[in-house]
Amino acid sequence: MSEVNEITEPKTAVDITAVEFPKHIDIDLSNKCNLRCRFCHLSFLEPEKWQQLSYDQFLEIAPVLEKVESISLFSKYEPLTCRDFIPIFDKVCEYDVETYFSTNGILLNDDIINALVGRLTYLTVSVTGFTRESYAKNMSQDRLETVRENLAKLNAAKKAANTIYPKLRITFVGMLDTLDELCRSLDFAAEFEASEGVRMTYFRSYGEGMSEYMPLNEPETVAAAIDEATAYAQRLGISFESIGGTIDEIESDVDKALGHRRCNLPWKTLSLQPNGDVYPCAVAYTTVGNFFENTFDEIWGGEKLAAFRDGVNDPDKLNEDCRQCSHCRYGSVLDPVANDFSTAGRYFGGMKRKQSN
Ligand SMILES: C[S@@+](CC[C@H](N)C(=O)[O-])C[C@H]1O[C@@H](n2cnc3c(N)ncnc32)[C@H](O)[C@@H]1O
Ligand code: SF4
Ligand code: SF4
After folding, report:
1. What are 246-272's pLDDT values in tens digits?
2. Which of 117, 216, 269, 357 could form a disulfide with 24 if both were Cys (CB 3.0 to 4.6 A apart)?
3. Ligand 3 residue neighbourhood (C-beta within 6 Å)
4. Which H or E run includes 272?
């Protein structure tokens, strides 16, 4: 056991002990998207090569499903752009694992809905903008009506099958110029019977002209919007969370020497890309192996991951990845280093700035 594993501090209550095999994996089945939301990294950065996993390639990781407890079928891109999404999902359903993914909801067609109903555990649909105009402005296409129709179809299919699965959540990106619609996200969640309510992510900036909308510029405005949404959610009987907590909660937990909350992800999880690259978490820049070339046992017990773990919670050995941690649950919301990537030439998961930006 490394010395990092022995750190226990009641304040953070993070269990930093490597489990025998990852409990959770996330995997991008495709690194493409049908949208270019104005806030998203994909509007400014791109992966080295556009790729998607085929069903046969996915079989490489199928044995892992015997051991993990849960799998997220997305990480940074749009999972429904994967051509083999349905056969891959059918394969995952052969195992006893909790399943989850987040989508913009536009590609949720009848075949996909039929595959998901009664089988997928959690589904998040990302919607930032609840009028035709604001949706088109934020999400890059005039498709709010398509999302509404698809959610209605999903709910009808759930009712017909008499199931609560997939449990639905709506995600909203909290920017200084979107917060005026935060309460409307709760109305939307109520309308579409989202049992998991609404989750707001704090906006991080990836490009020119976007940094002025970061919460760190006006934390009081953001805190007031969260308070208002929390009260409104209570009145509606809907769950609402700003991811990671309120700004005060997050910042009081951030270890000043590390710049992030104490983190145990690389001791419990792995994050996979469609080119086979494996990362210690979804927001890391450093690869710890490739699942087309290495076994998961080699990666999990390997030197690269061990070295990365040493630099997660130790200020003297801090990984550059962790210094600028942009994870929604571990990173700071007020530190510009963890929120403003508007001039960064590269970003996590092997992304590089587009030449045109
Ligand atoms: C990158 S997307 C990938 C999955 C899928 N395409 C979707 O939109 O749900 C994952 C989540 O990140 C959120 N997101 C995108 N850009 C963001 C940003 N700059 N700051 C905070 N959250 C962001 C999206 O709204 C979405 O809920
Ligand atoms: S739908 Fe998701 S991945 Fe696609 S551009 Fe929007 S936030 Fe990014
Ligand atoms: S980058 Fe952030 S989430 Fe990833 S291991 Fe480091 S501290 Fe944890």
Report:
1. 999 999 999 999 999 999 999 999 999
2. 269
3. 260, 263, 265-266, 280-281, 283-284, 312, 321-322, 325, 327, 330
4. strand 269-272
